[in-house]
Amino acid sequence: MTIPFILASASPRRLTLLKQINLAPSRIEPAAIDETPLKNELPAVYAKRMAETKARAVAERFADTVVLAADTVVYLGRRILPKAEDEATARKCLKRLSGRRHRVMTVVAAIKGGVLRTRSMVTIVRFKQLSAAEINDYIVSNEWNGKAGGYAIQGHASAFIPWISGSYSNVVGLPLAEIQSLLDRYT
Questions:
Q1: Is 165 helix (H, G, I), strand (E, B) or coil?
Q2: How many Å apart are CA 88 and CA 187, to the nearest integer?
Q3: What pLDDT does 65 receive?
Q4: Catalytic entry in 34, 71, 137, 184
Q5: What are phi and psi of 118, to 5 degrees?
Q6: The pLDDT of residue 2
Q7: Domains and CATH numbers, the chain
Q8: What is the spatial distance between Cα 17 and Cα 63, in angstroms, rounded to a whole number?
Q9: pLDDT block averages, 10 residues each, the chain of length 187
């Protein structure tokens, strides 16, 4: 049995994933923080900093309840790919990912009463070589909008991915096994 928790995220994908394992937050309270990476910040450091900052920001208002926060980054080597908010960014991300392997890391943070715990998951994803037509068609789909790295594995982009190594749900936005393990620590 999982105790009540607050989800510090406005992501509909994260809520859907949680429901898949029969977890529903008692409340949704997105954290309003600056998510700009620091200069030369490594992907793992950035993801951990963001997840912890989101959890702490919401926990300031709800100290007696578990607050669950997460941050997902898509990266090539040491380069964090941005969340695609416009077509040019999405196109640039897809061109970078084309024919290459990249990593998706999610850090999950839970806090209650000042006690913070984290879990992380890295999944390796391989994209096939994309044609200009495939990129254009994907841009038209608008699935890239608001997605880290400019794609959503659970949609049309699944046709671009011949294999992954690691957690599929992590690439969607939450590593579910790690979430369950983390929340079980509070029961």
A1: strand
A2: 46
A3: 93
A4: 71
A5: -130, 155
A6: 64
A7: 5-184 (3.90.950.10)
A8: 25
A9: 84 92 93 92 97 96 93 95 96 98 97 94 98 97 94 96 97 93 86
